[in-house]
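<given_protein>
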Amino acid sequence: MNIAIDGPAGAGKSTIAKLVAKNLGSIYVDTGAMYRAMALFMIKNNVDSGDIEAIEKTCENADISIVYEDGAQHVILNGEDVTPFLRTEEVGNMASVSSANQCVRTKLVALQQKLAKTTSVVMDGRDIGTVVLPDAECKIYLTASTHTRALRRYKELLEKADGDKSKVAALEEIEKDIADRDYRDMHREHSPLMQAKDAHLVDSSDMTIDEVVREIMRIAKK
């Protein structure tokens, strides 16, 4: 069984998808990490986010794959494990732009679909239920309020900075950045973020992680 989990940035898709996959004994495929790896490749090659021609040309030279070691997912970019470098704000913002490019999407979607044909997967992203796995047996649209998502991100960054607020952007700035990314994701020309018609809406604003996992498991077992 394939489960597609879509939703905006900061909704907790990756965390939830990993737990659901573990509970079901399925393979977790972090599509966002694949797009972030492509974005990292753009940054490494000094590609401007507004240069569409450069993005399309550069993506042709990116070889991105996913491997599992001791149950942990590793993203490989041209032979290098880049997993530790994918969650920076710079990479996230570049990914929001480059992932809207059709050449980039075509290349990565083909790999994602191949994985789903050979094994049961839980896949999360922006267009899994609408484009990548339109025939998935279970589709979830996971969301949360902009403020809730910003607060989660702020706490995560603050923890990484050992509590030093001077090293973390203001909550208002993070919330604006998330709102801007939502707008870009929902209004991009190719595969915009939207809830599939047959997807179940799950709003995690006032839910714990365990509650969200239980709800998705309940839906998947219907």
The first helix runs from residue 13 to 24.
